[in-house]
Amino acid sequence: MTKVEYWVKIPFGPIHPGLEEPEKFILTLDGERIVDVDVKLGYNLRGIQWIALRRNYVQIMYLAERMCGICSFSHNHTYTRAVEEAAGIEVPERAEYIRVIVGELERIHSHLLNLGVLAHDIGYDTVLHLTWLAREKVMDTLEAVAGNRVNYSMVTIGGVRRDIDEKRRRIILDMIKYYKEVFPQIEDIFLHDPTIEARFRDTAIISKRVALEQGAVGPTGRGSGIRDDARWSERLGVYPDLGIKPVMPQDVTGERPRGDVFDRMAVRIGELWQSLELIEHALDQMPDGKIKTFPKDNVLVAKLRIMVDGEGIGRYEAPRGELIHYVRGKKGSDKPLRWKPREPTFPNLFAVAEGVKGDQVADFVVAVASIDPCLSCTDRVAVVEDGKKRILTEKDLLKASIKKTREINPEIKGDPTPVGFGCSR
Fold this sequence. Notes:
This protein is of the alpha+beta class. The chain is built from 17 helices and ten strands. It is 49% helix and 12% strand. The radius of gyration is 23 Å and the shape is globular.
Protein backbone atom coordinates (compact mmCIF):
# COMPACT_ATOMS: atom_id res chain seq x y z
CA MET A 1 0.00 0.00 0.00
CA THR A 2 1.42 3.41 -1.01
CA LYS A 3 2.17 5.76 1.90
CA VAL A 4 0.58 9.18 1.43
CA GLU A 5 2.45 12.11 2.98
CA TYR A 6 0.71 15.39 3.67
CA TRP A 7 3.26 18.20 3.55
CA VAL A 8 2.46 21.87 3.94
CA LYS A 9 4.54 24.95 3.18
CA ILE A 10 4.48 27.92 5.53
CA PRO A 11 6.27 31.27 5.26
CA PHE A 12 8.56 32.18 8.14
CA GLY A 13 9.38 35.88 8.07
CA PRO A 14 10.42 38.31 6.67
CA ILE A 15 9.74 39.70 10.15
CA HIS A 16 11.72 37.28 12.28
CA PRO A 17 10.33 36.40 15.72
CA GLY A 18 13.77 36.52 17.31
CA LEU A 19 15.75 39.09 15.33
CA GLU A 20 15.31 42.70 14.27
CA GLU A 21 16.41 42.22 10.67
CA PRO A 22 14.11 40.91 7.90
CA GLU A 23 14.74 37.47 6.45
CA LYS A 24 12.30 34.95 5.01
CA PHE A 25 12.22 31.17 4.90
CA ILE A 26 9.69 28.84 3.28
CA LEU A 27 9.39 25.81 5.57
CA THR A 28 8.07 22.51 4.24
CA LEU A 29 6.50 20.63 7.16
CA ASP A 30 5.33 17.11 7.80
CA GLY A 31 3.18 17.84 10.82
CA GLU A 32 5.57 19.58 13.21
CA ARG A 33 8.68 18.12 11.55
CA ILE A 34 10.76 20.30 9.20
CA VAL A 35 11.27 18.54 5.86
CA ASP A 36 12.88 21.32 3.81
CA VAL A 37 13.92 24.98 4.10
CA ASP A 38 14.06 27.51 1.25
CA VAL A 39 16.04 30.65 2.13
CA LYS A 40 14.72 33.93 0.71
CA LEU A 41 17.02 36.95 1.06
CA GLY A 42 16.94 40.50 -0.27
CA TYR A 43 14.78 42.44 2.19
CA ASN A 44 17.51 44.68 3.54
CA LEU A 45 19.43 45.89 0.51
CA ARG A 46 20.85 49.39 0.81
CA GLY A 47 23.06 49.54 -2.28
CA ILE A 48 26.23 50.15 -0.27
CA GLN A 49 28.57 48.74 -2.92
CA TRP A 50 26.94 50.94 -5.57
CA ILE A 51 27.39 54.00 -3.35
CA ALA A 52 30.98 53.04 -2.51
CA LEU A 53 32.17 53.01 -6.11
CA ARG A 54 31.31 56.71 -6.23
CA ARG A 55 33.45 57.53 -3.15
CA ASN A 56 37.21 57.71 -2.69
CA TYR A 57 39.21 55.20 -0.62
CA VAL A 58 38.99 57.23 2.61
CA GLN A 59 35.26 57.98 2.30
CA ILE A 60 34.54 54.25 1.86
CA MET A 61 35.97 53.57 5.34
CA TYR A 62 33.04 55.42 6.92
CA LEU A 63 30.61 53.62 4.63
CA ALA A 64 32.11 50.18 5.34
CA GLU A 65 31.73 50.48 9.09
CA ARG A 66 28.04 51.33 8.63
CA MET A 67 27.31 48.02 6.90
CA CYS A 68 26.59 46.62 10.35
CA GLY A 69 26.06 48.24 13.74
CA ILE A 70 27.43 45.20 15.59
CA CYS A 71 30.62 44.45 13.65
CA SER A 72 31.40 47.94 12.34
CA PHE A 73 35.08 47.62 13.32
CA SER A 74 35.34 44.28 11.52
CA HIS A 75 34.16 45.69 8.19
CA ASN A 76 36.28 48.82 8.34
CA HIS A 77 39.33 46.85 9.51
CA THR A 78 39.02 44.23 6.76
CA TYR A 79 38.45 46.87 4.08
CA THR A 80 41.52 48.86 5.18
CA ARG A 81 43.64 45.68 5.14
CA ALA A 82 42.58 45.07 1.53
CA VAL A 83 43.55 48.63 0.53
CA GLU A 84 46.83 48.39 2.47
CA GLU A 85 47.70 45.20 0.56
CA ALA A 86 46.82 46.80 -2.79
CA ALA A 87 48.92 49.88 -1.96
CA GLY A 88 51.79 48.07 -0.21
CA ILE A 89 51.35 50.07 3.02
CA GLU A 90 52.94 48.80 6.26
CA VAL A 91 51.02 49.38 9.48
CA PRO A 92 52.95 50.56 12.60
CA GLU A 93 53.25 47.81 15.23
CA ARG A 94 51.52 49.86 17.95
CA ALA A 95 48.54 50.34 15.65
CA GLU A 96 48.29 46.56 15.13
CA TYR A 97 48.02 46.07 18.90
CA ILE A 98 45.32 48.75 19.16
CA ARG A 99 43.42 47.05 16.32
CA VAL A 100 43.53 43.79 18.32
CA ILE A 101 42.17 45.51 21.45
CA VAL A 102 39.26 47.22 19.67
CA GLY A 103 38.45 44.10 17.66
CA GLU A 104 38.27 41.93 20.79
CA LEU A 105 36.13 44.53 22.59
CA GLU A 106 33.75 44.31 19.65
CA ARG A 107 33.78 40.48 19.85
CA ILE A 108 32.78 40.59 23.55
CA HIS A 109 29.97 43.03 22.74
CA SER A 110 28.71 40.86 19.84
CA HIS A 111 28.86 37.51 21.66
CA LEU A 112 27.06 38.85 24.75
CA LEU A 113 24.35 40.24 22.48
CA ASN A 114 23.86 36.88 20.73
CA LEU A 115 23.80 34.93 24.01
CA GLY A 116 21.04 37.24 25.22
CA VAL A 117 19.08 36.73 21.98
CA LEU A 118 19.36 32.94 22.32
CA ALA A 119 18.03 33.12 25.89
CA HIS A 120 15.18 35.41 24.79
CA ASP A 121 14.23 33.02 21.97
CA ILE A 122 13.50 30.23 24.47
CA GLY A 123 11.60 32.59 26.79
CA TYR A 124 14.45 32.87 29.30
CA ASP A 125 14.36 36.67 29.61
CA THR A 126 16.06 36.70 33.02
CA VAL A 127 19.23 35.50 31.25
CA LEU A 128 18.65 38.00 28.44
CA HIS A 129 18.67 40.83 30.98
CA LEU A 130 21.75 39.41 32.73
CA THR A 131 23.84 39.19 29.54
CA TRP A 132 22.71 42.51 28.13
CA LEU A 133 23.35 44.23 31.46
CA ALA A 134 26.89 42.81 31.33
CA ARG A 135 27.18 44.00 27.71
CA GLU A 136 26.74 47.61 28.83
CA LYS A 137 30.22 47.54 30.39
CA VAL A 138 32.01 46.82 27.11
CA MET A 139 29.80 49.36 25.29
CA ASP A 140 30.84 52.00 27.81
CA THR A 141 34.48 50.96 27.36
CA LEU A 142 34.23 51.27 23.59
CA GLU A 143 32.75 54.74 24.01
CA ALA A 144 35.64 55.73 26.31
CA VAL A 145 38.24 54.40 23.87
CA ALA A 146 36.71 55.47 20.54
CA GLY A 147 34.15 58.15 21.38
CA ASN A 148 31.21 56.06 20.11
CA ARG A 149 29.35 52.95 21.29
CA VAL A 150 28.98 51.85 17.64
CA ASN A 151 30.68 52.98 14.43
CA TYR A 152 33.93 53.62 16.29
CA SER A 153 35.98 55.11 13.39
CA MET A 154 39.14 53.78 15.07
CA VAL A 155 40.78 52.29 11.99
CA THR A 156 42.31 54.20 9.12
CA ILE A 157 44.28 53.03 6.12
CA GLY A 158 47.82 52.66 7.44
CA GLY A 159 47.01 52.51 11.17
CA VAL A 160 44.48 53.75 13.71
CA ARG A 161 43.02 57.17 14.41
CA ARG A 162 43.28 57.24 18.20
CA ASP A 163 45.87 56.05 20.66
CA ILE A 164 45.20 54.21 23.92
CA ASP A 165 46.70 56.39 26.65
CA GLU A 166 47.08 55.56 30.34
CA LYS A 167 43.56 56.77 31.20
CA ARG A 168 41.94 54.54 28.54
CA ARG A 169 44.24 51.65 29.55
CA ARG A 170 42.92 51.85 33.14
CA ILE A 171 39.32 51.86 31.87
CA ILE A 172 39.98 48.69 29.85
CA LEU A 173 41.68 46.99 32.80
CA ASP A 174 38.70 47.91 35.00
CA MET A 175 36.41 46.28 32.41
CA ILE A 176 38.52 43.10 32.44
CA LYS A 177 38.28 42.95 36.25
CA TYR A 178 34.49 43.36 36.04
CA TYR A 179 34.09 40.56 33.49
CA LYS A 180 36.29 38.16 35.45
CA GLU A 181 33.67 38.47 38.21
CA VAL A 182 30.60 38.30 35.90
CA PHE A 183 31.58 35.73 33.24
CA PRO A 184 31.62 32.72 35.64
CA GLN A 185 27.92 33.31 36.38
CA ILE A 186 27.05 33.64 32.67
CA GLU A 187 29.15 30.57 31.82
CA ASP A 188 27.53 28.51 34.59
CA ILE A 189 24.02 29.35 33.36
CA PHE A 190 24.65 28.60 29.70
CA LEU A 191 26.66 25.41 30.27
CA HIS A 192 24.82 23.87 33.23
CA ASP A 193 21.22 25.15 33.34
CA PRO A 194 18.91 22.18 32.54
CA THR A 195 16.41 24.37 30.65
CA ILE A 196 19.09 25.67 28.29
CA GLU A 197 20.60 22.23 27.82
CA ALA A 198 17.17 20.75 27.05
CA ARG A 199 16.50 23.33 24.32
CA PHE A 200 20.00 23.70 22.82
CA ARG A 201 21.44 20.15 22.97
CA ASP A 202 20.92 18.11 19.77
CA THR A 203 19.00 21.00 18.19
CA ALA A 204 19.76 22.06 14.60
CA ILE A 205 22.79 19.77 14.25
CA ILE A 206 25.15 20.88 11.49
CA SER A 207 27.45 17.93 10.84
CA LYS A 208 31.09 18.59 9.97
CA ARG A 209 30.38 17.30 6.45
CA VAL A 210 27.50 19.74 5.93
CA ALA A 211 29.52 22.59 7.48
CA LEU A 212 32.37 21.92 5.02
CA GLU A 213 30.02 21.57 2.04
CA GLN A 214 28.23 24.85 2.82
CA GLY A 215 31.41 26.71 3.81
CA ALA A 216 30.30 27.43 7.40
CA VAL A 217 32.66 29.76 9.26
CA GLY A 218 33.17 31.29 12.71
CA PRO A 219 31.47 29.82 15.79
CA THR A 220 29.10 27.98 13.42
CA GLY A 221 31.95 26.14 11.70
CA ARG A 222 33.99 25.60 14.87
CA GLY A 223 30.87 24.32 16.64
CA SER A 224 30.75 21.59 13.98
CA GLY A 225 34.39 20.64 14.51
CA ILE A 226 36.12 22.74 11.82
CA ARG A 227 39.35 24.00 13.41
CA ASP A 228 39.74 27.34 11.65
CA ASP A 229 39.99 30.97 12.65
CA ALA A 230 41.24 33.64 10.23
CA ARG A 231 43.27 35.31 13.00
CA TRP A 232 45.11 32.01 13.46
CA SER A 233 45.25 30.54 9.94
CA GLU A 234 46.09 33.90 8.32
CA ARG A 235 48.65 34.77 11.08
CA LEU A 236 46.94 38.14 11.13
CA GLY A 237 48.90 41.16 12.39
CA VAL A 238 50.27 40.59 15.89
CA TYR A 239 47.75 37.84 16.79
CA PRO A 240 50.44 35.07 16.56
CA ASP A 241 52.49 36.95 19.21
CA LEU A 242 49.43 36.91 21.50
CA GLY A 243 48.98 33.12 21.32
CA ILE A 244 45.79 33.03 19.22
CA LYS A 245 44.22 29.63 18.51
CA PRO A 246 40.72 28.50 17.45
CA VAL A 247 38.31 27.88 20.35
CA MET A 248 36.59 24.52 19.88
CA PRO A 249 33.55 23.09 21.74
CA GLN A 250 35.70 20.49 23.53
CA ASP A 251 37.82 23.31 25.00
CA VAL A 252 34.69 24.54 26.82
CA THR A 253 32.44 21.50 27.38
CA GLY A 254 35.05 18.71 27.46
CA GLU A 255 32.98 16.76 24.91
CA ARG A 256 33.45 16.08 21.20
CA PRO A 257 31.66 18.58 18.93
CA ARG A 258 28.10 17.61 17.99
CA GLY A 259 27.45 20.69 15.80
CA ASP A 260 24.26 21.67 17.63
CA VAL A 261 23.05 24.99 19.04
CA PHE A 262 24.70 24.17 22.38
CA ASP A 263 28.16 23.78 20.78
CA ARG A 264 27.85 27.05 18.85
CA MET A 265 26.88 28.80 22.10
CA ALA A 266 29.77 27.08 23.95
CA VAL A 267 32.30 28.37 21.40
CA ARG A 268 31.10 31.92 22.06
CA ILE A 269 31.46 31.39 25.82
CA GLY A 270 35.06 30.23 25.28
CA GLU A 271 35.79 33.18 23.01
CA LEU A 272 34.61 35.65 25.65
CA TRP A 273 37.40 34.41 27.94
CA GLN A 274 39.88 34.31 25.05
CA SER A 275 39.12 37.95 24.14
CA LEU A 276 39.86 39.06 27.71
CA GLU A 277 43.22 37.26 27.59
CA LEU A 278 44.11 38.75 24.19
CA ILE A 279 43.30 42.28 25.39
CA GLU A 280 45.37 41.80 28.55
CA HIS A 281 48.36 40.50 26.58
CA ALA A 282 48.03 43.28 23.99
CA LEU A 283 48.06 45.96 26.70
CA ASP A 284 51.17 44.38 28.26
CA GLN A 285 53.10 43.91 25.01
CA MET A 286 52.07 47.07 23.10
CA PRO A 287 55.23 49.00 22.14
CA ASP A 288 55.62 52.77 21.99
CA GLY A 289 55.62 54.48 18.62
CA LYS A 290 53.43 56.10 16.01
CA ILE A 291 49.92 54.86 15.31
CA LYS A 292 49.50 55.67 11.60
CA THR A 293 51.61 55.92 8.47
CA PHE A 294 50.07 59.10 7.05
CA PRO A 295 49.35 62.01 9.41
CA LYS A 296 46.30 63.50 7.61
CA ASP A 297 43.48 62.23 5.39
CA ASN A 298 44.25 64.61 2.51
CA VAL A 299 47.81 63.26 2.39
CA LEU A 300 46.43 59.71 2.52
CA VAL A 301 44.05 60.33 -0.41
CA ALA A 302 46.89 61.80 -2.50
CA LYS A 303 49.21 58.88 -1.68
CA LEU A 304 46.59 56.23 -2.47
CA ARG A 305 46.01 57.81 -5.89
CA ILE A 306 49.58 56.86 -6.88
CA MET A 307 50.16 53.80 -4.65
CA VAL A 308 47.12 51.63 -5.46
CA ASP A 309 47.60 49.83 -8.76
CA GLY A 310 46.21 46.33 -8.59
CA GLU A 311 44.16 44.32 -6.13
CA GLY A 312 44.19 43.50 -2.44
CA ILE A 313 42.34 41.08 -0.17
CA GLY A 314 41.62 41.65 3.52
CA ARG A 315 40.74 38.71 5.80
CA TYR A 316 39.60 38.94 9.40
CA GLU A 317 37.79 36.76 11.92
CA ALA A 318 34.70 38.85 12.67
CA PRO A 319 32.51 37.74 15.63
CA ARG A 320 30.23 35.84 13.21
CA GLY A 321 33.08 34.26 11.23
CA GLU A 322 35.61 34.90 8.50
CA LEU A 323 35.07 38.23 6.74
CA ILE A 324 36.71 39.02 3.39
CA HIS A 325 36.96 42.31 1.53
CA TYR A 326 38.32 42.55 -2.02
CA VAL A 327 39.53 45.82 -3.53
CA ARG A 328 40.85 46.51 -7.03
CA GLY A 329 42.20 49.92 -8.03
CA LYS A 330 44.09 51.67 -10.80
CA LYS A 331 46.96 54.14 -10.55
CA GLY A 332 45.80 57.72 -11.03
CA SER A 333 42.33 57.23 -9.51
CA ASP A 334 41.33 58.02 -5.92
CA LYS A 335 38.46 55.51 -5.93
CA PRO A 336 38.41 51.73 -6.43
CA LEU A 337 37.27 50.04 -9.62
CA ARG A 338 35.80 47.20 -7.55
CA TRP A 339 34.99 46.59 -3.89
CA LYS A 340 33.42 43.34 -2.81
CA PRO A 341 32.79 42.25 0.81
CA ARG A 342 32.04 38.58 1.55
CA GLU A 343 30.26 38.18 4.88
CA PRO A 344 30.05 35.09 7.12
CA THR A 345 26.24 35.03 7.41
CA PHE A 346 25.64 33.92 3.81
CA PRO A 347 27.29 30.44 4.04
CA ASN A 348 26.15 29.97 7.64
CA LEU A 349 22.49 30.53 6.68
CA PHE A 350 22.53 27.68 4.18
CA ALA A 351 24.39 25.44 6.64
CA VAL A 352 21.72 25.89 9.34
CA ALA A 353 18.98 25.45 6.71
CA GLU A 354 20.40 21.94 6.14
CA GLY A 355 21.02 21.31 9.84
CA VAL A 356 17.47 22.04 10.94
CA LYS A 357 15.87 19.41 8.67
CA GLY A 358 14.18 16.77 10.80
CA ASP A 359 13.81 19.11 13.79
CA GLN A 360 10.55 20.43 15.21
CA VAL A 361 9.27 23.72 13.78
CA ALA A 362 9.36 25.20 17.30
CA ASP A 363 13.18 24.94 17.22
CA PHE A 364 13.55 26.98 14.05
CA VAL A 365 13.76 30.39 15.76
CA VAL A 366 16.62 29.43 18.04
CA ALA A 367 18.31 27.47 15.22
CA VAL A 368 18.56 30.58 13.03
CA ALA A 369 19.58 32.79 15.96
CA SER A 370 22.38 30.34 16.86
CA ILE A 371 24.39 31.38 13.78
CA ASP A 372 24.00 35.05 14.83
CA PRO A 373 22.87 36.15 11.35
CA CYS A 374 23.39 39.68 10.08
CA LEU A 375 21.23 40.47 7.08
CA SER A 376 22.30 44.08 6.69
CA CYS A 377 25.76 42.69 5.84
CA THR A 378 24.49 39.95 3.57
CA ASP A 379 21.80 41.29 1.23
CA ARG A 380 22.77 41.97 -2.40
CA VAL A 381 20.95 42.73 -5.65
CA ALA A 382 21.78 42.02 -9.27
CA VAL A 383 19.44 42.97 -12.10
CA VAL A 384 19.96 40.72 -15.13
CA GLU A 385 17.33 40.72 -17.91
CA ASP A 386 17.72 38.67 -21.08
CA GLY A 387 21.30 37.97 -20.12
CA LYS A 388 22.18 41.67 -19.88
CA LYS A 389 23.20 43.49 -16.70
CA ARG A 390 21.36 46.70 -15.84
CA ILE A 391 22.26 49.22 -13.12
CA LEU A 392 19.36 51.02 -11.45
CA THR A 393 19.77 54.74 -10.80
CA GLU A 394 18.43 56.54 -7.75
CA LYS A 395 15.53 57.81 -9.89
CA ASP A 396 14.73 54.25 -11.05
CA LEU A 397 14.63 53.03 -7.45
CA LEU A 398 12.41 55.94 -6.41
CA LYS A 399 9.94 55.23 -9.24
CA ALA A 400 9.90 51.52 -8.34
CA SER A 401 9.21 52.41 -4.72
CA ILE A 402 6.29 54.68 -5.67
CA LYS A 403 4.89 52.00 -8.01
CA LYS A 404 5.02 49.41 -5.24
CA THR A 405 3.34 51.76 -2.76
CA ARG A 406 0.48 52.39 -5.22
CA GLU A 407 0.07 48.64 -5.77
CA ILE A 408 -0.33 48.17 -2.02
CA ASN A 409 -2.64 51.17 -1.57
CA PRO A 410 -4.22 52.51 -4.83
CA GLU A 411 -6.00 55.23 -2.84
CA ILE A 412 -2.82 56.93 -1.73
CA LYS A 413 -2.58 60.61 -2.65
CA GLY A 414 0.43 62.65 -3.66
CA ASP A 415 2.57 63.57 -6.65
CA PRO A 416 4.80 60.67 -7.76
CA THR A 417 7.23 63.04 -9.48
CA PRO A 418 10.58 63.07 -7.62
CA VAL A 419 11.10 66.33 -5.72
CA GLY A 420 14.26 68.33 -6.47
CA PHE A 421 17.24 67.19 -8.48
CA GLY A 422 18.09 64.24 -6.22
CA CYS A 423 21.37 62.44 -6.64
CA SER A 424 22.84 62.80 -10.10
CA ARG A 425 24.75 59.51 -9.83
